[in-house]
Design brief:
128 residues, single chain, 7-stranded mixed beta sheet, mainly beta
Length: 128
Amino acid sequence: QVQLVESGGGLVQAGGSLRLSCRASGRTFSSYTMGWFRQAPGKEREFVSAIDWSGGPTYYADSVKGRFTISRDNAKNTVYLQMNSLKPEDTAVYYCAADGRSYYRGSYYYTLSSYDYWGQGTQVTVSS
């Protein structure tokens, strides 16, 4: 079982930055692909970014490409999402997720069903 705890959300003005963190329990964190998703009020949860278990390949939704950066520190069992140039449309609850298939490298990193473990979410609000 993996537990994920997000932190770092908050209120920021448009154009500002935030860094989200997601700390995982367990000793197998380094073998999991990790993802970030978000859900705005009245909308479905959507893919934001993912990072391969090796820390190599990273993936981004078109809406955040060039503004957000995902990274991981396996020694700290933590994945990060650096968010720059924030826009009001980035306002959402941000969720961290882990793909429980160790050392798996698939093509569906952008789908909710690829992830077995989810955090409780952290609110990000961007004011205009």
